[in-house]
């Protein structure tokens, strides 16, 4: 097979800013891979390319004027003639992307897809059925959509409408708004739940039971009076109350040895006929009232129907304990994947270096992280600090207090340079109020905020940078690792 050719795809409607975006990309020396580039233009707009401003040579521009030219043989021929090691495509907004996918040569691999849209027309297109379909087609395959001329959609109602449009096509596509002065704002609207909470009957997908369970426990009043339908196992227990049972699922909160049943008390006149551990499809009205199971108020169901059902493929809801890799980029990538899988409450534990005199194996809870790494800036606009979610910090501190464990709040310094905490830099960070240094907190806080998850961290002290003149021989806080992991699980149980 021929060598793999990476394809960088820019999609959007005419006058959406694709040409300007690509022009600016080609003016950036960092986009120079050393390979010759084939630039395929599939529609001709008012703006033309200025090849004299390209930051690197070896760019061959070709205009695809007819859709018939979009075939594997012709595309491969054009790449050979240009001796291209990569391809950039400015795609026609009126062509479906599947047409391109069907006609790419086998060795052309789409590495990146970026969409652009004109803020002055985006809402009009979104409300037109035919144009909306074309927009969704482009968004579904894009990593990022940039709404330029964003002054036209610089209000909450417009942002909400565009957010819903994008999320209808993709839950992974980032959203940015570019203004005439060159400034950029990023969408930070929390993504909606994977089910329609306003539907007459909220149908909970089998794989999303855990998300619904946690959300209903967190905000029971939100579901009060609503009807839900979900797959569950029968639990017959006296704790359910009179004429009641508990429909629920088994959940793994830490490891296989820590599987527990999570469900809600549910009144049902026919409960006696239900077999223990049988799978059922429950349709029930949600109430919020006192129940002994909660020793207070909580979600209480009233069954409208209980029907026999088949066991699902995955019969255990997983609350996972994972080992994240070292460093901000890898850790944030890992968190992004977890959030995409449905995680909404995330507590991490990790060691840190101390900048002030502190003993080894002390526990600290960061309330702010100084952003001296690169990853957080890919998730949030530039700022001095990234902050863990206040509700996560409160949950962690509540757990420590309940267990009678000492802790300190701190500002932490997140850096990428493992061996670059110089004497002057340590003094500078201390003067800014930083007490610790580590490599992940700011990036994880930014990633979680961007993706609509709540993140908090438990740090335990390991090495020390407090005294550059005298080495403090330590054991890297290894005695705290197991305890910190157990505390994370306990935080999630009490949160």
Structural commentary:
The chain folds into three domains: 5-186, Rossmann fold, CATH 3.40.50; 202-318, Nucleic acid-binding proteins (OB fold (Dihydrolipoamide Acetyltransferase, E2P)), CATH 2.40.50.140; 328-494, Nucleoside phosphorylase domain (Rossmann fold). The relative contact order is 0.09. It has helices at 18-26, 72-82, 97-103, 122-126, 129-139, 156-169, 209-218, 220-223, 328-340, 390-402, 423-431, 441-451, 481-494; strands spanning 5-11, 37-41, 59-63, 86-90, 108-118, 144-148, 174-178, 184-186, 202-203, 227-235, 244-252, 259-263, 266-267, 279-291, 296-308, 316-318, 345-354, 363-372, 385-386, 408-415, 434-438, 454-464. Mean pLDDT is 90; it is low at 253-258. It is built from 13 helices and 22 strands. The chain is globular, with a radius of gyration of 27 Å. The chain is of the alpha/beta class and 495 residues long. It has an eight-stranded mixed β-sheet with strand order 3-2-4-1-5-6-7-8, sandwiched between helices.
Number of strand segments? 22
Annotated CATH homologous superfamily of the largest domain: P-loop containing nucleotide triphosphate hydrolases
- The unreliable regions are 253-258
Mean pLDDT rating: 90
CATH architect. name of the largest domain: 3-Layer(aba) Sandwich
Gyration radius, in Å: 27 Å
Terminal Cα span: 54 Å
CATH topology-level name of the largest domain: Rossmann fold
Q: What's the number of structural domains?
A: 3
Tell me, what's the shape?
globular
Q: How many H/I helical runs?
A: 13
CATH class of the largest domain: Alpha Beta
Amount of helix? 25-40%
Global structural class:
alpha/beta
Strand order of the largest sheet: 3-2-4-1-5-6-7-8
Largest beta-sheet details: 8 strands, mixed
Percent in strands: 25-35%
